[in-house]
Amino acid sequence: MLRNGVYRACARRTVVNGARSNLTIGLIPGDGIGKEVIPAGKKVLETIGDKYSIDFKFIDLHAGWQTFLDTGKALPDETVSILKQQCQGALFGAVQSPTTKVEGYSSPIVALRKQLGLYANIRPVKSVSGTNDRPVDMVIVRENTEDLYIKEERTYIDEATGTKVAEATKRISEVATRKIAKIALDIALQRLKNTGKATLTVTHKSNVLSQSDGLFREVCRDVYEKNKDLYGNVSYNEQIVDSMVYRIFREPECFDVVVAPNLYGDILSDGAAALVGSLGVVPSANVGPDIIIGEPCHGSAPDISGQGISNPVATIRSAALMLQFLGYNEAAKDIQNAVDENIRSGKIKTPDLGGDSSTTEVTDDILSKL
């Protein structure tokens, strides 16, 4: 466990082999299929808890579009308060957000990331050996608190033309960039220890956005150069985001750890999911100093909501990631191995992967492999 790196957020907790431990986990299904996949994640945690002497306490919490319609708030104060005061981890399902502006509504997951200091979004994209997927094994590290996601927008009338103009502020700070560069390099260092090689690729568009993306690029390189004694064996690369999109599909095997500002990281990780079958299998962890929130990368999928065919794999893998960043590495590894075995067999899978199994059938198959 990297005390000063990836797992720094939870260094206050020591995991002792053989001793029982307690974890309080918030469950935030959100909207659409979130209500179907979060229970799957809960079942897997309960099962792995029995095996590793972890006593889980689950707290059901509310957030999302339906919560906004019911209460006038997409992210109730009570949800934030309970997460801050009682929870070490949480699972967040999905949010169905309107495509046009609705007065008073803003994305609850974006707000949660800001209010809980969840500065890093870690998204592993990995194929399973023994399947027909291309060999992919990368981690996309996405800065989670700024860039265009600060949501500072305005619309006004241009006096010269008499037509509407919309503007959005893109914010890149040295403080946030140093934090995200550090955790990306720590992840690369851990992979170096595991496999004997690691590369960090910094993604940017500084050829056009010379100040904002230029600062991101400059600070990432500075963190690497000033810590050569620690990271010197990690290879360092830079890639302009448009060519990165091209290369990530043409030669994904060339990428290991990718670090990017918020928007680019969001787009790259969703696109990379196509390399491993479906958004339904790609997990993420929102990492902060006091809490880890696992979050599947898929959306609320209203077209299949309520049909019982949503893929629980991304949520189950997100639960494993949450445990990993909380320091429960062996429990996390067991969950990942059970999921890989399910995918490798190819017998029980949901329609997004070409199968005809239900959410429950896939969950039960993974549970049987634990």
TrEMBL record:
Its EC number is 1.1.1.87. It comes from the Eukaryota. One of its GO terms (biological process) is isocitrate metabolic process. It is an enzyme of class 1 (oxidoreductase). One of its GO terms (molecular function) is isocitrate dehydrogenase (NAD+) activity. One of its GO terms (cellular component) is mitochondrion. SUPFAM superfamilies: Isocitrate/Isopropylmalate dehydrogenase-like. Residues 347-370 are annotated as: Disordered. InterPro entries: IsoCit/isopropylmalate_DH_CS, IsoPropMal-DH-like_dom. Residues 24-366 form the Isopropylmalate dehydrogenase-like domain. Coiled coil: none annotated. Keywords: Amino-acid biosynthesis, Lysine biosynthesis, Magnesium, Metal-binding, NAD, Oxidoreductase, Phosphoprotein. It catalyses: (2R,3S)-homoisocitrate + NAD(+) = 2-oxoadipate + CO2 + NADH. Pfam families: Iso_dh. SMART domains: Iso_dh. Its cofactor is Mg(2+). Pathway: Amino-acid biosynthesis; L-lysine biosynthesis via AAA pathway; L-alpha-aminoadipate from 2-oxoglutarate: step 4/5. Gene3D superfamilies: Isopropylmalate Dehydrogenase. Belongs to the isocitrate and isopropylmalate dehydrogenases family. This is homoisocitrate dehydrogenase.
